[in-house]
Each structure stands twice: as C-alpha cells, then as structure tokens.
Amino acid sequence: MGKRDKKPEASAPAAPFHNPFAALNLKREELPSGPAPAPVKAEEPKGPARAVVRMERKGRGGKEVTVVEQLGLPAAELEKWLKALKGGLGCGGTVEEDTLVLQGDQRERLPSLLEARGVRRVTVG
What we know:
3 helices, elongated, 20% strand, 5-stranded mixed beta sheet, 5 strands
C-alpha cells in the first residue's frame, strides 16, 4: 500500500503485571484506629464593637473619600484591615491617624464587609 499502513495494535493487559501494594490492602483492617478528629467550632470573627462610616470632600480637592472611624484597633491591625477592605472594594486607601480613608463613595458596599470582619454595629453617616 503506502507509507501509512496501519499496524495491528497490541491488546492492553487487563491488570497490572505486579502490584506491590496489593498485599497491604489486606492488612488495612489490622491497623489500629487513629485518634478521633477534634470537633471544629464555628467561631464568629472577633472585631471592634462599632464603626462609623462617612463620606467627605473637604480638604481633598473635591475628591470623594469614605472615612471609617472609631474602630479602636492598633496601627498594625488597621493596616491589615485596610488591605482587606481595599481588595474587597477594588479601590485605593490609606490610614490617617486612627481612621481608614478609602477612595470614592463606598458607603453602600462597606457595611457588609465590615460586618463580615466582625464589627457588631456599623453607623453610616
């Protein structure tokens, strides 16, 4: 015929030739049972008791920013919260003294994110 003659295919074996773990499967019942898994507690995330969210323009060249005040967190925690909120909202922001300043008017979207982080009472002004 031509160059592309089909060769007869060899049939595949039904089972592996040698399975080194087959004998171990029979000894599985002889093994002692391990320690019982610890129960998983669903804890509510701990966060500050309250937060005040407001929008302001003064002193910012007419740009709108959303300010989150009265969190009462240390500076290191404020940085972590700011990074999480910026990622969740898709905006920029900074920490000014003890407040979080987020770019744009985020008053509608921000309370749900704060409550998810454990803030018990969010006041929007």
